[in-house]
Write a structure and sequence with these properties.
With about 150 residues, this protein is an alpha/beta fold. It is about 50% helix and about 15% strand. A five-stranded mixed β-sheet has the order 3-2-4-1-5. The radius of gyration is 20 Å and the shape is globular.
Amino acid sequence: MVMGQGLTRLILAIALLVACPLASSATDVPIVLIANPNVPIDSLTRETIRAIFAMRQRTLPDGQAVHVFVLPDESRVHARFAKEYLGVYPHQLRLSWDRVVFSGTGQAPNHVDSQAEMVERVATTPGGIGYIEQGYLDDRVRLLPLQ
């Protein structure tokens, strides 16, 4: 019986050692802001990004209409983007979207189901802007760094 418990503890310890590096490596992949290739802006300030993704700003600084794309609320990439770029939790972002929709002053962002779809939709929508993990970045979209 004691040997069985020892073996169980050893297996659990090995499982933790194996799982921990995988969990931490997933958060090491940078999240990047992307834009349609025709968006003529080289970078955006954090304040502008917050206003755009809160749906309070409907145009880019050059006057072009902006079309915001977001991943599902429960997506870990969405949660990281909200926290790292916008400084809010996903539920706070959802509340701001609901506020503009229900007040009649704006609309909710466009939802996509995956990062691959995010790239596709941003690439094919004039004024499109979104976010992905850097590994999904390809030449169909532009990287949009923070100022």
